[in-house]
Amino acid sequence: MQALERRYYAPFILVSTLFLLWGLANNMTDTLLAAFKRIMNMSDTQTSFVQFAFYGAYFCFALPAALFIRRYSFKIGIILGLALYAWGAMLFYPAAAIGSYAFYLVAIYIMAGGCSVLETTANPYIMSMGSPETATRRLNLAQSLNPLGSILGILVSRTFILQDISLYSVSGTYMGLGVVLIAILIAMLFAGMPEGKDSGGESVGASFRRLWKNKRYRYGVMAQFFYLGAQIGVWSFTIRIVTQETGMSEAPASDVYLASIAAFCLARFFFTWLMRFVRPTFLMLCTAVVAMASSIIISRTHEPNILIFALITTSFCMSLMFPTIYGTALEGVDRDAKIGASGLIMSIVGGALITPVQGLVSDRFCINTSYIVPFVCFLVVFAYSLGVEWKRKKMKTA
Which of these, 228, 202, 230, lies nearest to 340 by C-alpha position? Predict the structure, then answer.
């Protein structure tokens, strides 16, 4: 069965470009931990508050975004998300002028709020473009643009921030991004994208009650929370651990980060193809096992080549987890898809809460030992995959 019908080609391509935009923001932000550590002489715990602000905004904005697109439309939701994203990026200039870390966190919070609105809007829209049976595969395909944005974000950061680390190099780069976003916003205003308004009139409370009774959805939100904690933690401290274990400076160490994201990107395409033959949740179960093993290796080794290989392997394994958890959790929710999507986007707060825990472990012990935290997170993903596979097997034999 085809993942995408011809009539959906144009809106699919248009909406899929948004996945690149928040991938750009996510991974530019990851490099800020290394930048602020150098500029402001901060601890790993202090710099991790960049991720607390970024992914905390995802939690706060997701449900209002879902309510907004229920009332208006997908297109209006996209316009709102782009406007917030651009506003936050532009606030980096006054943050540099004042020299305030708190102001930077506010700018990051607003920018990430825009990304949250975009994700809450785009993910269920992509899943609605065709047969429910191919929704997870379709989402994996659209999500393939996300790591391309991540690669672009790393290249931009490496060229304009990490080569000459200063508050103005950070702010100038984000302001340039803001100008690009304003141009995209104007283009979206005139684009002929279907509005996809939600005509359902049921209360939000009724949707939440139905969703809470759905174990696959409920545990999916939990799995997504821990997965995002693992992803953000692994990537946030990649440059830090590489500089420590290899003696590289931040700019060349970012090449390892770039290689990790490239592996993530290629794996996304590979696993999307493989899902034609193998169930997505079974693939996720297998990759969770490998990711756990890689995390243990990172936590124990001081051999640079083994460390770098384990970091890249972990990113390869993570590539299918977000869209697969997302698609699996939303299977069969039908009329509650938009509210359900907001719950899954809110679970991205795992990146805000778990990354500081990893920072605390790093400060208390060492950065290698901190990768035990992602190991625990991957264990939760493994348990969710196993549970879904076990239930599917029971239904077949019943």
Answer: 202
Residue-wise pLDDT tens digits, 301-310: 999 999 999 9
Rounded-to-10 torsion of CA 363, 368, 373, 377: 150
Distances (CA, A) of 349 to 54, 56, 96, 353, 391: 9, 5, 26, 6, 28
What confidence tier does 144 reach under pLDDT thresholds 50, 70, 90? confident
Nearest to 171, CA basis, from 281, 96, 222, 112: 96
The residues, ordered by sequence, that sit 6+ positions from 37 with a Cβ below 8 Å of its Cβ are: 43, 44, 47, 240
Question: SS3 string of 203-267?
Answer: CHHHHHHHHHHCHHHHHHHHHHHHHHHHHHHHHHCHHHHHHHHHCCCHHHHHHHHHHHHHHHHHH
Q: What is the mean pLDDT of residues 258-282?
A: 89
Asked if residue 252 has pLDDT above 60, the reply is yes
Structure tokens at 179: 């100008």
Q: Which two tokens stand for residue 371?
A: 């990768």
CA angle 58, 59, 61 (to 5 degrees): 65
Q: Could you give the angle at the alpha carbon of 320 between the alpha carbons of 315 and 323, nearest 5°? A: 130
Cα(269)–Cα(274) distance, rounded to whole angstroms? Answer: 9
Q: How far is CA 360 from the centre of its chain?
A: 22
Whether the pTM exceeds 0.85: the reply is no
Query: How many Å apart are CA 310 and CA 300, to the nearest integer?
Result: 11
Cβ-contact 317, 277 below 8 angstroms: no
What is the 8-class DSSP label of residue 330?
T
